[in-house]
Amino acid sequence: MLRIQQLKSGSFLFRPFSRSLASLDASKVKITNVREHSVPKPNDQLVFGKTFTDHMLAIEWTAEKGWGVPEIQPYGPLTLDPSACVFHYGFELFEGLKAYKTSDNKITMFRPDMNMARMNKSAARICLPKFDSEELIKLMGKLIQQDKHLIPEGQGYSLYVRPTLIGTTPALGVSTPDRALLFVITSPVGPYYKTGFKAVRLEATDYATRAWPGGVGDKKLGANYAPCILPQLQAASRGYQQNLWLFGPEKNITEVGTMNVFFAFKNSATGKKELVTAPLDGTILEGVTRDSILTLARERLDPKEWEINERYFSINEVAEKAAKGELLEAFGAGTAAVVSPIKEVGWQGKDIQVPLLPGEQSGALTKQIAQWISEIQYGKVQHGNWSRVVAELD
Ligand SMILES: *Cc1c(COP(=O)(O)O)cnc(C)c1O
């Protein structure tokens, strides 16, 4: 026994396990510029997520050394071993957030600390390395600074930022990755709805399940998204743009497509209104937009008029309330569209009608909330540290 221990401790002399692992350090960044900056596309030619900027950020991690030197380099293909664990076992997670050119000529991001915290939670869940959130925010700032001429200007225009973390261990054994790559790419984007809102039709979906208790539906893992495309095609074949995901025998409403979802009701007996969204019980993605809407609604809606609730509610409750004239509005909430008004929900062969303002594509509250968030994102209104300056326009 003693000898084995001695041997083990002896081997420590030759294998420097005790050396501390390098943490993510933005000050070490190495920048390789493109030879020639590209020319920005005209705003009207921007299609969501199809155009990318000149540079990307890439940082390698190994279990042996920790985080390597962050590199800002020309945008281009990755070279990976075909045995890399990302290709076989889905060691992949991502984030989505936006950078804005504000009215006072700064480049800001909206609540990036929330995205970084969520990214670290996703990483922990699939045994990929965690990192210092503030360092990655600084690095994203440096990347954006490099491509600042490509951030489109104007209401609804922004730079979509896509941080991604993958396991790159070149081995087929299913185990903890000992190599990883964190990269960030950015894409100039326009408003989700080019000509104002366009309310959507949803199919309440109980024939497929997006997420379940004890699962990973509350993490932004790539593995959660591919299985949702087939149900979306099935809904589309019946004329619906997105799935309204239901869960369990109660048929509780969870999310819509890849967005959180809000419904507004009015109690016809008391006259009191309610804004409701599903609670964070592990089956719901913890949306930054969702959190921002709840916060603003609690701060700004009159509590004598409105109740703001995170609670379970079912498609049957929505159908019943709609029949009594108590359904006021419904909308999806996420970074890409901010809010996305809903006009109809298909359920059991019928369409539940969601009221819209006369001649418009949204309800009054939906419109109000979209405006509140946009004012903060474009720097017209301050809200604590929600809008963070990450780069200068000089
Ligand atoms: C990203 C995402 C959301 C919205 O999150 P935001 O932080 O508001 O962009 C909601 N649901 C799912 C399933 C998502 O992937």
TrEMBL record:
The protein's gene is named KNAG0M00140
SUPFAM superfamilies in the cross-refs: D-aminoacid aminotransferase-like PLP-dependent enzymes
- Pathway as given in its UniProt record: Amino-acid biosynthesis; L-methionine biosynthesis via salvage pathway; L-methionine from S-methyl-5-thio-alpha-D-ribose 1-phosphate: step 6/6; Amino-acid biosynthesis; L-valine biosynthesis; L-valine from pyruvate: step 4/4; Amino-acid biosynthesis; L-leucine biosynthesis; L-leucine from 3-methyl-2-oxobutanoate: step 4/4; Amino-acid biosynthesis; L-isoleucine biosynthesis; L-isoleucine from 2-oxobutanoate: step 4/4
Modified residues annotated as N6-(pyridoxal phosphate)lysine in this record: 220
For biological process, the GO terms are: branched-chain amino acid catabolic process; L-leucine biosynthetic process; L-valine biosynthetic process
What is the recorded name of this protein? Answer: Branched-chain-amino-acid aminotransferase
Cofactor requirements of the protein: pyridoxal 5'-phosphate
Cellular component per GO? mitochondrial matrix
The record's comment on protein family reads: Belongs to the class-IV pyridoxal-phosphate-dependent aminotransferase family.
Catalytic activity as recorded in UniProt:
L-isoleucine + 2-oxoglutarate = (S)-3-methyl-2-oxopentanoate + L-glutamate; a 2-oxocarboxylate + L-methionine = 4-methylsulfanyl-2-oxobutanoate + an L-alpha-amino acid; L-valine + 2-oxoglutarate = 3-methyl-2-oxobutanoate + L-glutamate; L-leucine + 2-oxoglutarate = 4-methyl-2-oxopentanoate + L-glutamate
CDD domains reported in the protein's UniProt record: BCAT_beta_family
| Assigned keywords, A-Z | Amino-acid biosynthesis, Aminotransferase, Branched-chain amino acid biosynthesis, Pyridoxal phosphate, Transferase
Q: What is this enzyme's EC?
A: 2.6.1.42
Please tell me which top-level EC class this enzyme sits in: transferase
Q: Which domain of life is it from?
A: Eukaryota
An example of a GO molecular function for this protein is: L-valine-2-oxoglutarate transaminase activity
- List, alphabetically, the Pfam families matched: Aminotran_4
